[in-house]
Amino acid sequence: MKASDLLVKCLEEEKIEYIFGVPGEENADFMMSLEQSDSIQFILTRHEQGAAFMAEAYGRLTGHTAGCLGTLGPGATNLITGVADSNMDRAPMLVLTGQGSTNRLHKESHQIMNVVKMFEPVTKWSAQILNADTIPEIVRKSVRIARTEKPGAVMIELPEDIAEHDTQEQPMTPIRYRRSVADPELVKEAADLIKSAKRPLILAGNGCVRKRSSEQLTQFCEKTGIGVLNTFMAKGCVDFEKPYSLFTIGLGAKDIVTCAIDASDLIISIGFDMVEYHPHLWNPDGKKRILHLDFTPSEIDKHYHPELELIGDIAKTMAELNTHFDDHDDYGFDLSQQASTRENMYQELMAYADDTAMGKVKPQKVLHDVREVMGREDILLSDVGAHKMWIARHYQCHEPNTCLISNGFCSMGFALPGAIGADFVYPDRKILAICGDAGFMMNVQEMETAKRYNSNIVAMVWEDHEYGLIAWKQWAHFGKHTQLDFGNPDWRLLAESFGWNSFIVENSDDVKRSLQAAFDADGPSLVVVPIDYAENKKLTERLGELTCVI
């Protein structure tokens, strides 16, 4: 068979369902082979970056690998931002690129560049196929690496002449392996360490929303009552309505929930990724006692120096840890400060629930109404901008992987294509992308993709006519900001031109009604909210005056 046929058969063997992308001349053989597949669907996108974000959302929601495809040169460079985002946010992804013939790779030639080298810093592994017979091994290795904790992106390049070669090889059958578990003696030592603490606290990171970890974490909290602070990317690791949920931590400034860390004498760090929220922000003097539970050993950092590490499958390690704690036993913990922190933060979340302001709408009010419209398993995807900080702080979740935030690499333009990818995974759930007007326009062309595939998504744009997060940060640091404002399209005409429904919010009372109408409409919908970002400065000033009582 042809090498390109074998590559497709290997991807089928790996149960790849979707490949998102933009084809080119140099991967024409692969596309012809892919067209014959009965099990892999190719999703034609309008830009390679959008394809990568769609594959990332699929990977984060399923734990399985989707493909994103581009041709050589500019096709490959267009992929790279979404690939880097996937890799740093721990989403399994398979990147497939074309390349010119091998007889011209050694010299100056049209569109030729070293794509494999370019992708090495933003993938777990990158490889070029130079021999058709190696395709089964390369594909098996790629998917295994992509899915192995901590998951991420891998890249395969197929030169156009190699794609045409004949081969007699057959796909390799995937053999899954069991992840290791922490040493039982160390787990017992960890349990004793926790029991000896007076005010233990759980810091739950991205690893807690993968591989059944949240179930065991919830069981542990039910047994012990110990409070959980989740990072932006760990929302839903425990139900926010539970008394041990202390909501979300991750703002650069000191926040109400930070007081719980200040009061704690032991931080139980579970699945924590340092790219999410650097320890110098919550352990500035490096003196906090830390128990580290994760798939991998801790990063070396003077602000994060655990005295004990449990390395292995988080869910299995937590299950073993749970055997050392009995239901409803009194372990002598003083969790009163954590209860106070939860109550104080809850009051913040509800402060503008009944706000009736005309004109611009407060972020807190928007997110309160969004939470009321969205069901327990519905999915919100946040783009990057000032709105992300409000979503992280004010939008809380019942279930893991129901709020996807780009937070490791923090790439604008993620939410709209990500929502399209999410809709392929869960077509029966409400899928909401919240974007700033800047981030939305970065991948606005994917509105056509959503319409073509009849994605039942809603994109909500918070309109402020500027790069709001940059303005916020510059103001906080310098007391002023540079020129950051811009114009926007006529949103109704934009939506109409792409065949979308549109809803323009005019005051606070419109938010909930407009959002529900958007979800009830047939096909994709755009909801535009004039946002009151005067709240940014007010929040910074209020948190600057915060004093923790320990």
Question: What is the rounded Rg?
Answer: 24 Å
Strand content: 15-25%
Mean pLDDT: 93
Contiguous low-pLDDT stretches (5 residues minimum) are none
Total helical segments: 21
Plain-language structure description:
The protein has helices at residues 3-13, 28-35, 48-62, 74-88, 115-119, 135-147, 160-163, 184-196, 213-224, 258-263, 314-322, 336-350, 363-373, 386-394, 415-425, 437-442, 446-452, 468-478, 491-498, 510-520, 534-544; strands at residues 18-21, 41-44, 66-70, 93-99, 125-128, 153-159, 200-204, 228-230, 245-248, 266-270, 290-294, 308-311, 379-382, 403-405, 431-436, 457-463, 501-504, 525-530. By secondary structure, the chain is an alpha/beta fold. It has 3 domains: 3-163, 3-Layer(aba) Sandwich (Rossmann fold), CATH 3.40.50; 184-343, Rossmann fold (3-Layer(aba) Sandwich), CATH 3.40.50.1220; 352-542, Thiamin diphosphate (ThDP)-binding fold, Pyr/PP domains (Rossmann fold, 3-Layer(aba) Sandwich). It has a 6-stranded parallel sheet with strand order 2-1-3-4-6-5, sandwiched between helices. Strands 9-8-7-10-11-12 form a 6-stranded parallel sheet. Helix 1 (3-13) packs across helix 2 (28-35), helix 3 (48-62) crosses helix 15 and helix 13 (363-373) crosses helix 14 (386-394). The longest helix is centred in the first third of the chain and has 15 residues, at 48-62. 53% of the residues are buried. The mean pLDDT is 93.
